[in-house]
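URGENT: need a sanity check before tomorrow's submission.

F., can you look over the Kinesin-like protein record below? I want to be sure the sequence and structure line up before it goes out.
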Amino acid sequence: MANVKVAVRVRPLSKRENAEEGRIIVEVDNKVAKVRNIKVDNRLDGPWDSREKIVAFSFDYCYWSIDPEDPKYASQEVVFQDLGTSVLSGAFKGYNICLFAYGQTGSGKTYTMMGTPASVGLTPRICEGLFSRQDDYSEQPASCRVEVSFLEIYNERVRDLLKQSDHKKPYTLRVREHPETGPYVQGLSQHLVTDYKQVVGLLEEGIAKRITAATHIHDASSRSHAIFTIHYTQAILENNLPSEIASKINLVDLAGSERADPSYCKDRITEGANINKSLVTLGIVISTLEFADVQ
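Structure tokens as predicted:
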């Protein structure tokens, strides 16, 4: 049975938006995000325009991350306590979990998922939680094994970010489907890690290899989808017999969606088309999961 939850995070204005005298049109009220329609708001009231000035959307979580001095400010730690601990709790119970950041270019996806050295994001925090397991989740297993992999999908092709690849043919991995375990990437390297420091080293190595490019919205926009996968296996005793509980955590930093611009070079246009195509497919998958959850 699928269980889909949605969280929205409101970020501060970027330098470019401040220079263009942009303004924040979103308000957060508990689990409701209210968006002001500027076009309607600037017009005179009249019967010819029935659109609402403010439209409200409900989510499972809403985070106001504009001003650190604001009492309502949601820091990286707050986001982790809501989302990251749920991921850890599910993984310790043996569930497969996927957590991904979706949004327009420059909306703060990579910051929320990866963070910075001074403000660590969800992915490193979740990895740290696997090695500093709290009693709140479940009883400590006799032993556990953690293996990680890191890939990117660029222009519908897959590359291993933790493996030296052929520069002539860097995107050679293929997606297959196993009859029992489901979809997998053939030839993707898996790395056994024994502590948090090793995980951080692999994360930094993979992030450095990701493809980025400047766009009109973001100076260093991620042009590929990045998937950091954690295979977490616990050795336990069940009815005095050795057994294992295996779970898989997919932490995904999606490429940002952006409208096509005729002034872009051919590479940017091709990238954008492939990004949007894959995001549409993702939307179909989520809709299917939500329908299955209702059923």
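My own read: The chain is about 30% helix and 30% strand. The first strand starts at residue 7 and ends at 10. If you see anything odd, call me.
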